[in-house]
Amino acid sequence: MAPGPSPTTEHMYPGLELPLRHFPQKPRENGQEFYRIAAHPECAGASTPILMVREIGMLIFMDRLTDKPNWDHDVFDETVVAQWRHEAFTQSEDYLRDAILADKKLYPAGMPVPNRQRIISKKAFDYCIAELRSKAALFDRTGLIYTLNSRGNRVVKSDSALRNQQAPEQYQRPGADCRVYELVDPSMYPFVHGRSEHLRNELVGVTGAVELCGKGQVTPRKDRSSPMAAPDPNSDSEGWNDFWSETYQWLPANVSFRRDGTAKFTSYINNLHPDKHPEIYDRIEQLLDACIPAWDHVLNGYTHNETTMGNANDGLWGLFDQIRFPKLKDGSYEGLVYENDKSGIWEKFDDDVVTEHEHDHGEIKLPDWHSQILDEDSPYYDSAEEFVANLRKEKWEAIREAIYPEPQEFKPLLNGLRHKLRDRFKDTGLQVVVKMSSIELTPENPEFAEGEWQVEGQLNEHIVATALFFVDCDNVTTGQLSFRMKTFNTTLLFSCEDSVKYYERVYATTLPDEPDYSAPGGIQNFGNIEIRQGRIIAFPNVFQYRVSGFSLQDRTKPGHRRLVTLCLVDPHQRIISTGNVPPQRADWWAEAIFRNGSNFSIGNMPQELFQVLFEQGATDSLNIPPEALDKIRFANRLPLEIMEMVRQHCAVPPGIMTPTEARQHHGMLLEERARFQKRVTEEWMAEEEV
């Protein structure tokens, strides 16, 4: 491990020199470069073009094929490909429809989702094989697999990046009653504006970090007025309040690059003791070395000079940005005359399907307004036969399937990544938030519920990418990580009122009854990726993600899933880090003062002062021998009123937090994050509720 960096004042931090709500992602022509964040719809580059059902199905299908052993070789073996083709055309596609329609309200309650049409058609299958053959070249070079990639948004997974590395180990063992145990939790002892002390220069390193406990000054709050500040929080005119924290910020660790390009921490990881666990620091550095190339491939830049995506990172935007289907033009598709010839966009009428549907699922319910027309006594009909025929036609139109367009001819993927974090930020380095978690299941608590949709970090933390490393999965069922993204306004799909239903079925999204150019976009499900032991999943912070529920395989034995999460702060905008903020933990501070190896001593400190530290919880981690504790606790050499004065003035240095105070901040931070995640989902789901 390396010592702390040389003193520097070159950085300008939000909350210090810059407004706390400094936010280059809000569209303005200021020439600022940054990576995208999608927490709020107003964030530049936060939305994706809407994708068709067939394309989403192809993404999920290709992801499943890349989970097969030796897929990168078998995809060139025609015998194996023929077997895959047979499986694709004979197996149920319910898993595709479930993923595509998750959280959608496209079909009325009780109406089964039509499945007469294959999502993976012959042309779609051939396209997938061609694309996978192109992706195999990247995998063979890097061990990285592009997946769920479309329109400049992508996830990268890898099962081989750490194959020869030992994973970070659990450094504490959870108690028997713990379900989720945060081994390293950035929400404990965070930076608290107006409370935490900081050093203006990045003087706090890894070795010797604990010696600086209690040093620094309190950070003043800054005025938000700035050309690049988010709107005034008092008005909340654009609904930004819950997307920021005026009080809390996770503390990232600073990372630099050695001459050979490998990563090294230059400041301590918050809540991971640098002197007690140097081997874990080394292993997380190895994990970073595996994750940084994955981040290279998922990050896309933005520059406000022309408000055009990709200016900052020439060549990256087009990499693996497949245009698999014709682009929309004037409400239709180039080369497809859908609006002039509707016969080719819907299933042809089949009375037997109507009969079978009503036999299996009951009578097909039609909208109320149909009753005015579908009345046997209506003057619209010359005979009962005509009425029955029209009724059957209306029922058919309620259950018919839209014909999915076929993909275009495959064009080879671009190779040659022009953007690397190691090169672009070799002088300034990176900032990374580290989390280590363990989910423990027992026969008494054998199940873990599905998580909520989430975006990592609030806007003031500027998190642009995440990597999850699943360290260990023991005696638990397979889980999945699901992804979705905000879409552009879907009004562009309107060409005439009759086309709305067709587009709803082809794109699996709900559309308003008429064009509304002020409406927010909808939600685009991108699919899900299987969670496996040893797998890295890296993705940009334009996605919301959700972890599926899981349970014990053998319910007579305990089991667990353990993971490390790395969150990358936008390297274009440095934020306050552990390089600025000495450790705030009272237990680290107390151990440095009162312990010498396994020996405990209060030295020359008055017993009464130590007693106050004990009462405040600052010495909880010391494991003081009972006889020494009794001697100190009952010293009682000062009058009660004097002792009370000592308590009121606090024996702990101002920059140190006791466990009690830290837990209070932790609880308030989690409440704030819950409101944030709720608001994100509300903003994202706005059009889905129409």
From TrEMBL:
Residue span of region Disordered: 215-240
Segments traversing the membrane: none
Pfam family, one: DUF4246_N
Residues in DUF4246 domain copies: 13-87, 123-591
Highest taxon of the lineage: Eukaryota
Record-linked InterPro entries: DUF4246, DUF4246_C, DUF4246_N
Name of the protein: Uncharacterized protein
Originating organism: Cercophora newfieldiana
